[in-house]
């Protein structure tokens, strides 16, 4: 009886050892794959950094103009948001600007000077 129990325990230990060996092999494969992916990501990031460093810097006046432009856009978003979504008429200030420009030939071709184009309603003159 003791011999059967010992043989069963020995077999169980051998099975556990094989399972551990297989798991270790699987983890090694996964770790190798992760290392290769990480190395590729690092390489890509380095290449991107090099490209960004090689780009010419913009003139400070251009940067200043761009910053002021986007600040202006962000300031006007609340006024224009509902209009751009097609829910309301254009803000009052924009309509006044159109009327003040007069009726020159250019204004007659487009009655929407100063207003952004509406989606789906663009016409070619």
Gyration radius from CA atoms, angstroms: 35 Å
Q: Tell me the number of strands.
A: 0
Which bin fits the share of residues in helices?
over 70%
Amount of beta strand: under 5%
| Structural class assignment | mainly alpha
Number of helices: 4
Global shape? elongated
Q: Please outline the major beta sheet.
A: none
Description:
The chain is mainly α and 125 residues long. Helices cover 74% and strands 0% of the residues. It has four helices and no strands. The protein has helices spanning 2-54, 60-84, 92-100, 105-109. The longest helix has 53 residues, at 2-54.
Tag the structure with descriptive keywords.
single chain; 125 residues; mainly alpha; 74% helix; disordered C terminus
Give a quick summary of the entry.
The chain is 74% helix and 0% strand.
Give the SSE layout.
Layout: H1 2-54, H2 60-84, H3 92-100, H4 105-109
């Amino acid at each position: 009886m003791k011999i059967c129990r010992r043989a069963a325990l020995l077999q169980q230990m051998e099975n556990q050892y094989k399972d551990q060996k297989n798991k270790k092999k699987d983890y090694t494969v996964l770790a190798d794959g992760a290392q290769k992916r990480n190395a590729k990501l690092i390489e890509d990031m380095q290449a991107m950094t090099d490209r960004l460093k090689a780009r010419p810097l913009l003139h400070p006046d251009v940067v200043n103009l761009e910053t002021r432009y986007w600040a202006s856009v962000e300031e006007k978003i609340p006024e224009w948001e509902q209009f751009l979504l097609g829910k309301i008429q254009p803000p009052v200030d924009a309509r006044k600007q159109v009327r003040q420009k007069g009726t020159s030939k250019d204004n007659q071709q487009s009655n929407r000077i100063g207003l952004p184009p509406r989606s789906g309603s663009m016409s070619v003159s």
